[in-house]
Amino acid sequence: MSTLELVRKEGQPLDETGETPALRIRGLTVSYGRSPAVFSVDVTVPKGSMTAIVGPNGAGKSTLLKAALGIVRPLAGQVSVFGRPLSRARSRVAYVPQRASVDWDFPTRVIDVVLMGLYRELGLLRRVSKADRARAAECLERVGMADFADRQIGQLSGGQQQRVFLARALAQDADLYLLDEPFAGVDAATEKAIISVLKALRAEGRTVVAVHHDLSTVPEYFDRVLMINVRKIAEGPVDTVFTEEALHATYGGRLAMAGPGAPVAGAG
Ligand code: ADP
Ligand code: MG
């Protein structure tokens, strides 16, 4: 069957491997004010891949994720998830926001934060069952936080909180995981724990997209990369796309030490 026939059969454009992509964005433009934060960006994320989104502070990385989730309304563009409009695939997407964006003044136990991941499925009115609790506990176990189930989330360290948010996303049992700087400000043990969970998700055939600010770990952690600075600079396998030239085009003068193996290029 030719590619064109495949396209016709599915009624849906395919990725380079001939499958319906996990995430497909076309012509995405988002603007908060006068100048666009994201301009005319196309992205294709193949199923089962692990993609890093890199770019300088203010490059529109978080905005891109939020538009992919329908949290911000784009000026133009289309988003499809597993070949469907976002509105019909929302339950297949889990999101871990940038940690600084959550404020826990209200006392909330860790286990309840994880149970929030189940609410979409449970509905707000259904009672939380023993099985739900067991599943939440299992998700905490996967991120190495089983012993903290009854602690207040506000009392945990930043890295511990980040693991709990990941556990909440795991409880959603999604097929596409979008994470905004999951490693920012976490300790080495947490980074290890998180990356091994993400790699396990990929091994299960799930798709992971993460905004990532540490260029030195891109080749080790990810198989694909999307480089943006308002516009898309490059997209594809890390091996072929993550070059010094592309890094310069993405970071311009702001990158002091370019290239894989260099330290951090400024978080944001
Ligand atoms: P990144 O995550 O790459 O650092 P963001 O997507 O957060 O970048 O921001 C892109 C641009 O949009 C920045 O110039 C930022 O100041 C602006 N921006 C982000 N969120 C808002 C908002 N809610 N209102 C107005 N401007 C915003
Ligand atoms: Mg951001």
What is the overall pLDDT average? 87
Given helix and strand content, the structural type is alpha/beta
Strand percentage = 15-25%
Distance between the first and last residues' Cα = 45 Å
Indicate the multimeric state.
single chain
CATH superfamily: P-loop containing nucleotide triphosphate hydrolases
**Model regions low in confidence, pLDDT < 50 over at least 5 residues:** 1-11, 256-268
SSE sequence, one letter per element: HEEEHEEEHHHEHEHEEHH
Q: Can you count the beta strands?
A: 10
What's the tally of helices? 9
The helix content, as a percent range, equals 25-40%
CATH architecture group name: 3-Layer(aba) Sandwich
Write out the distinct hetero groups bound to the structure.
Answer: adenosine-5'-diphosphate, magnesium ion
- Biggest pleated sheet: 6 strands, mixed
Q: How do you describe this structure in short?
A:
The chain has 268 residues and is α/β, with parallel strands linked by helices. It is 33% helix and 22% strand.
Question: What keyword list fits this structure?
Answer:
268 residues; alpha/beta; Rossmann fold; disordered C terminus; binds adenosine-5'-diphosphate; binds magnesium ion
Model description:
The chain is α/β, with parallel strands linked by helices. The protein has a single domain, classed as Rossmann fold, CATH 3.40.50. Helix content is 33%, strand content 22%. It is built from nine helices and ten strands. It has helices at residues 3-10, 61-69, 110-122, 130-142, 158-171, 188-203, 218-221, 238-241, 244-251, and strands spanning 23-31, 36-45, 50-54, 76-81, 84-85, 93-96, 176-180, 207-211, 224-229, 231-237. A six-stranded mixed sheet has the order 6-7-8-3-9-10, with helices on both faces. Strand 9 and strand 10 (231-237) form a beta hairpin. The longest helix is centred in the C-terminal third of the chain and has 16 residues, at 188-203. It is globular. Residues 1-11 and 256-268 have low confidence and may be disordered. The protein binds adenosine-5'-diphosphate (ADP) and magnesium ion.
